[in-house]
Amino acid sequence: MSMYKQVTNKPWETQGLLGGLDPRPSFAMPSEKLALFFFMAVVCVLFSLFTVTYYLRMELGDWIPVNKPGLLWLNTGLLVLSSVFFQFSRAASKAGSLARTRTLFLVGGMLALAFIAGQVMAWQQLSTQGYFLASNPANAFFYLMTGLHIAHLLGGLWVWSRAVLAMLRTEDIPQQALRIELCTLYWHFLLLIWIALFAMLANT
Amino acid sequence: MAYVPFADQVHELHDPHSFVTKYIWSQDHKVIAIQYGGTAILVGLVALVLSGIMRLQLGFPDTFSLIDPAFYYQAVTMHGMIMVIYLLTALFLGGFGNYLIPLMCGARDMVFPFLNMLSFWFYLLSVIILMSSFFVTGGPTGAGWTLYPPQAITAGTPGSDMGILLMLVSLGVFIVAFTMGGLNYVTTILQARTRGMTLMRLPLSVWGIFVATVLGLFAFPALLVSAIMMTFDLTLGTSFFMPAVMQAGEQLEYNGGSPILFQHLFWFFGHPEVYIVALPAFGLVSDVLSCHARKNIFGYRMMVWAIIAIGGLSFIVWAHHMYVSGMNPYFGFFFATTTLIIAIPTALKVYNWVLTLWEGNIRLNTPMLFAIGFIFTFIHGGLTGLFLGNVVIDLPLSDTYFVVAHFHMVMGVSPILVLFAALYHWYPKVTGRMFNETLGKIHFWCTFLGTYAIYLPMHYLGFLGVPRRYYAMGNTDFIPASAQALNANITIAALFVGVIQILFFINIFWSLRNGDKAGPNPWGATSLEWQTPDTPPKHGNWGKELPGVYRWAYDYSVPGSEEDFIPQNVPATQSPSVEEENESE
Fold first, then answer.
1. Is A10 touching B (CB cutoff 8 A)?
2. Of A148, A161, B291, B553, whose Cβ has the fewest other Cβ atoms within 10 Å?
């Protein structure tokens, strides 16, 4: 039964096993995937609220824009590559090519680690130029929002590391297919968040 | 990987093997629910004692040397924060959500049992962090539960050194706990319903909990954002919210921040929070009313859509908490309009509850009395909300006891009455024993009449202009001396109501051993949790086979049927009038 039909149904009129003998989840996907979609929606709200706050705080006069390090472009490239590798790894896991899946997945995560290292280097560059956290709200927002993005990436890397360990321990890569798929999804999502964030930071 | 629907998958049920895995590190939703509920009630008792301290000061000023202004403000702050977040949110969603969702949906457990366990332990950690602020230098924060900057972090406000930091950290941890639990509740409701359980066959309790959880997932980030940024202002010297400010004649480092920005963020969370508490209460009370009136809930679909509409609207009314902060008049107009629009779905629900009672076969037992009591207090609190939703009426009343009376009626007393209704209603299922009905009724009448004795006079104090948040009245000549007499009476009523709650605890603990055996379905209820093979339900809930669902949750007093109710899992052929419609796709 479609979602629309379900919610417009008059439940007092119909009886019997609606939907037949099998349980019908509302969405034909694994629960983990649905939970991840909800989680990504929550993260979206979180970053949107920071964005709104950013623009409102910017209006207040004492705002001095940050001189964005060029390194950020390189980091963006690393994150794009990381996402691409995850995508290839997922395709390989679908095709059943085990060794390829593992290698691509491993490299994808390493690239994300490199991105994080790059972001930390960008922070160091900024502070050597005198853009300290507390000296201007623009700086504070820059450190805070990039930091928050890294925190979300670290959460993803925790799941990634568990999948990697499981894949190194056993040859049973198909068991990790769901983890690989969800990691890929989450990586694409965090890439989009980063691009939006970078666009905002670079233009203000 | 071929996709298998969740309810069809073979699951490891994490069967407990020892006392520790059964009662402490448990992954069973029922145990977690009791852990959540017990912790919430315990911390709620702390908040109750704090309210007694406030009332002693207000009723009998200059009598208790222990209660100095700092302690008074700390009591106000902690009372508010604990009651709203650590008691009500945790008990409705962590407690009742955990207990009822899998049982009412016909699932064996939550879809992520480990995450569920983690959610509780994070919640407990947040409570411990919050409580530890009573023992640090300077004590807990006294900034008011809204924690408005700059005063929340400037010296002079009680707890401005450690107390406020612990409060912010505790909130952060709570939000993490809530998010883990919330993802679980939402996913379980959508994916793990048993066969035949369509969305529109879910009891309203599940609908209320579902929409409240979605609200929570999207509203708590606003609190997290404000808590993070305030923590930065506090510890790292940023100026997100802190304007240039003098403290004891000295210019602080802060510059240019906007306290109003904090208020917007806080209330963008704060108003949905009202409905995070209210919607589960709406759901639970609908089921209690319908069951004990032996009638189907009036307007089931309308009730569902009203819950959803209220949930949606609750995100666009937040600035009505900020009329006195000042805003563009057009903003005020917008927020007043949206606020008043919320009255429509809310009033629909109230009419439907009353119409459910109409010509019902009402059993006036303890849960039903509490549920009917809720209709009274909710109407009172709701009507004063219509006053306060208007900018011109709000401005003079906002800083008076009228507001205290309003919000305690609508989101203090009302949800608490539902909590008691629900605790008494589901007690036989949770423990397998009946509670003592006489004690329960005494508890109800003392609580119900007592809360009126507390909050009804507060409306008059508000009209007189008695300011809220004041430790002592000082030179307020426009307030007649009789106001103090009223205040003393309110205090006596409040202390009485506070102490009388002991009846509830005596009842539930005494009945654990001495109550009559309840049997599986003492109320003759239709929803699935009353149809479990064991009472209290065992680990895995349903024995060998999951139940099938053949009808909605409100088949009470069906004409022609033998008993006055037909449980959801009774096949259609056993009821005479309707043909079985077996639809398979």
1. yes
2. A161
Residues B7, A23: C-beta atoms closer than 8 Å: yes
Q: How far apart are CA B19 and CA B39, in angstroms?
A: 19
| Structure confidence by residue, pLDDT tens digits, B316-366 | 999 999 999 988 999 999 999 999 999 999 999 999 999 999 999 999 999
Provide DSSP, A137-194. HHHHHHHHHHHHHHHHHHHHHHHHHHHHHHHHH-S-GGGGHHHHHHHHHHHHHHHHHH
Model confidence pLDDT, tens digit, residues B396-418: 999 999 999 999 999 999 999 99
Determine how many CB atoms are found less than 10 A away from the CB of residue B338.
18
- What was the ipTM of the complex prediction? 0.94
Any idea which residue has 């459910």 for tokens?
A: B356
- Answer yes or no: are the C-beta atoms of B315 and B267 closer than 8 Å: no
What pLDDT digit, counting tens, does each position of A80-101 carry?
Answer: 999 999 999 999 998 888 889 9
Under DSSP, the state recorded for B424 is H
Question: SS3 for B57?
Answer: helix
Residues B475-500, mean pLDDT to the nearest whole number: 93
Q: Which of B535, B515, B497 is nearest to B420 (CA)?
A: B497
DSSP string, B271-297: HHHHHHHHHHHHHHHHHHHHHHHTSPP
Chain B residue with the nearest C-alpha to that of A17:
B196
Grouping H, G, I as helix, E, B as strand and the rest as coil, residue B133 is helix
Distances (CA, A) of B318 to B108, B143, B265, B336, B508: 38, 20, 9, 10, 39
pLDDT, tens digit, 9 for 90 and up, residues B371-385? 999 999 999 999 999
- CB-based contact B239 A134, cutoff 8 Å: yes
Which tokens go with B364? 């006036």
Judge whether A31 and B6 are in contact, CB under 8 Å. yes
d(CA A116, CA A129): 20
Per-residue pLDDT reduced to its tens digit, B540-558: 999 889 999 999 999 999 9
Structure-token match 């240019």, residue found: B256
| B47-B48-B50 Cα angle (round to 5) | 65
Task: Pick the closest to residue B529 from B574, B565, B569 (CA basis).
Answer: B569
Is residue A14 within 8 angstroms of chain B, CB to CB?
A: yes
Helix (H, G, I), strand (E, B) or coil at B250: strand
**Rounded Cα gap, residues B559 and A188, in angstroms:** 57
Closest CA in chain B for residue A56: B261
- Residue A31 makes CB contacts below 8 A (sequence gap 6+) with A25, B6, B111, B112, B187, B188, B191, B192
Enumerate the β-bridge partners of residue B251. B246
Mutation site, B197, B200, B220, interface A, largest A CB count within 10 A: B200
pLDDT at B575 over 90: no
Q: Please tell me the distance in Å from A108's CA to the nearest CA on chain B.
A: 22
The percent of residues in chain B predicted with pLDDT above 90, rounded, is 87
Locate B211 and state its tokens: 């929409």
Cβ-based contacts of B582 with chain A (< 8 Å): 16-17, 20
Residues of A in contact with B238 (CB under 8 A): 133-134, 137, 140
